[in-house]
Amino acid sequence: MGRVLVVEDDDDNRSFLQTLLQLDNHEVHTARNGLDALMWLRTQRVLPHCIVLDLDMPIMTGEELFWRLQDEPRLARIRVIVLSGDVHRHADDLPTTIACLEKPAPPEVLADIVARCAQPRERAV
Fold first, then answer.
1. Phi and psi torsions of 31, nearest 5°
2. Domain 3-120 - what CATH class?
3. Per-residue pLDDT tens for 45-77?
4. Sheet holding 99-102, edge to edge
5. Are the C-beta atoms of residues 101 and 74 closer than 8 Å to each other?
6. Per-residue pLDDT tens over the stretch 1-27
7. 3-state SS, one letter per residue, for 40-65
8. Can you tell me the distance from the alpha carbon of 78 to that of 86, in angstroms, rounded to the nearest whole number?
9. Rg of the chain's alpha carbons, rounded to an integer?
10. Whose CA is closest to 68, among 45, 37, 98?
11. Of 12, 19, 23, 82, which has the highest C-beta tally within 10 A?
12. Do residues 95 and 61 lie in contact, with contact meaning Cβ atoms separated by under 8 Å?
């Protein structure tokens, strides 16, 4: 269906999200922190349709990555789905996200949002 980048520092959560999205036929790439994600994105000719982004990570947080993406026009077009244990603290600070979901998010809700992100822009969320 679509290309997705999962940015999550917890190995178990990252693996679970990758498997969940692959079962829905998405091409899934992963990164352990915001810096790894940013470096990977800058090397890609074809960008992912969306990023599933944890906020609390070492090296570069998800919030820092979010704002770095906004500074680069090519990367700013990528849709962002935030996952956080404290989503209410961050929701208003990240205005252009597609969704802010509390961890652990119901798998079917996340899968539905990602599927909609993989559609052409005119039909997406």
1. -145, 150
2. alpha beta
3. 999 999 999 988 899 998 899 999 999 999 999
4. 27-31, 3-7, 50-54, 79-84, 99-102
5. no
6. 789 999 999 999 999 999 999 999 999
7. HHHHCCCCCCEEEEECCCCCCCHHHH
8. 23
9. 13
10. 37
11. 82
12. no
